[in-house]
Amino acid sequence: QVQLVESGGGLVQAGGSLRLSCAASDRTFSNYAMAWFRQPPGKEREFVARISRSSQFTNYADSVKGRFTISRDNAENTAYLQMGVLKPEDTAVYYCAADPSYSAVAASYHYWGQGTQVTVSS
After folding, report:
1. How far is it, in rounded angstroms, from Cα 34 to Cα 29?
2. Cα(12)–Cα(81) distance, integer angstroms
3. CB-based contact 115:106 (threshold 8 Å)
4. Are 96 and 22 in contact (CB under 8 A)?
5. Residue 27: its pLDDT value, please?
6. Which of the four pLDDT bands, split at 50, 70 and 90, describes residue 88?
7. 15 within 8 A of 84, measured Cβ to Cβ
8. Is the dihedral of CA 104, 106, 107, 112 positive or negative?
């Protein structure tokens, strides 16, 4: 079973940047596609970005395209989400997720982190 631990969240002003990290416990990290989802206050969890096992493919929600970058380091068993030009509407709890399938659907992911809060002030 894969355990995922997110870090890097916090409070940032609009226009600022943050980098989230997702450390995985499993040495077979490279067997999993990774994704980031977020849940804004009072809203449903939504897809943010995904990356395939070997980093060959990435995909982003329209709302973050051009501002966020997903990446991974299979040697370090870690995935990242570099977030730039942050907006107040990016405020949410951010979750990383892992699954062998390369999916943008939350229900497809078997393994989840505990979440990290990102708050963007205006």
Report:
1. 9
2. 15
3. no
4. yes
5. 84
6. very high
7. no
8. positive
